[in-house]
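Ticket #332: bound-state structure for iron/sulfur cluster.
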Amino acid sequence: MTAPENRVTLRDQFGRGIEYLRISVTDRCNFRCQYCMPLEGLPWLPKAEILRYEEITEVVRQLAPLGLRRIRLTGGEPTIRPQLVELVRMLRAVPGVEDIALSTNGVKLPEMAGPLAEAGLDRVNISADSLRADRVVAIARRDLGFDLVRAAGAAQAAGLHPIKVNVVVMRGVNDDEIADFAALTRDHPWHVRFIELMPVGDLRELTWEHVVPTAEVLERVSAIGALADDAGPSRGNGPARYYRLPDAAGTIGVITPMTHTYCASCNRVRLTADGRLRTCLFGDHEVLLRDALRRGDPLEPLFRKALEEKPKEHQLLQMQVGGLRALSEVGG
Ligand code: SAM
Ligand code: SF4
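RESOLUTION: The complex was predicted; output attached.
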């Protein structure tokens, strides 16, 4: 069901309605992906600063009447926060919320997909950078037995739909698996999306030379079959473009933060684990909601203040490698 346009009463200075909230439930993670988190971890947020599930739900309850319809739970790794299933259940009960999604590294999906779906989760995005066990460990720098086909299979069996697989492509690291990932879509109804590596956080060994432009990704996928444009309705409202191999069950998507910006159609804001509303993934525009929330003050004035400051577009392309906060810190 689509909300009437006039339900979106929260608009930024450029007229973009905000109907999509990404919620980071934790800054911690059981992986240490090379492109996201240093091996030794990050200075974790103190527990007292992290929003409780009741507080997260209250933010959503106050945003929903202003037009919020879709939610994504992310992190850090959301599935390592205890009782995540309960949060899904609480959010599902908020009137006006139509769609609840999860971004996960998939490690815990085999046991959690069923309970999450039963609590009201609609869909899942699974990050997977390799189909080879030894390489998964080399990229994630943790050996937790992740296997994409098993994780996505569990999500599918639980009825989560659609299932999207996010692959960060890195030259010389996993770019020789582009065709293997694409080939998965022949038999599985999954949406495999190739993401350009972004220069955020402390990438250490990764540099601009590891960025594989999307045009090159598509060229390599075309080597295994002709790609047709695919603009189906289930493709979401995000920044991806989609294609399909002949007779394939699933689709192939590309997300191009480095070579294109998609800010003009940006309809999202982020809630950090410590209760800050961020209106752009990059840059430092954030408004602290936590104190007002804990005092019991209404949040709408703060929502409006945050939106007034939402930048027109991000400055990523002008920035050097490093110097920006890691996606795990801002709820990527
Ligand atoms: N832990 C969950 C996961 O990995 O899906 C959710 C949080 S993670 C920060 C969200 C997404 O950001 C993942 O798909 C990950 O691959 C992507 N990501 C993190 N750092 C990135 C980078 N430097 N460049 C491109 N994508 C990145
Ligand atoms: Fe963890 Fe996700 Fe960052 Fe990997 S990309 S370290 S799984 S938060």
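RESOLUTION NOTES: Residues 29, 35-36, 74-75, 77, 103-105, 127, 166, 168, 195, 197-198, 200, 327-328, 332 surround S-adenosylmethionine (ligand 1) (CB under 6 Å).
TICKET STATUS: resolved
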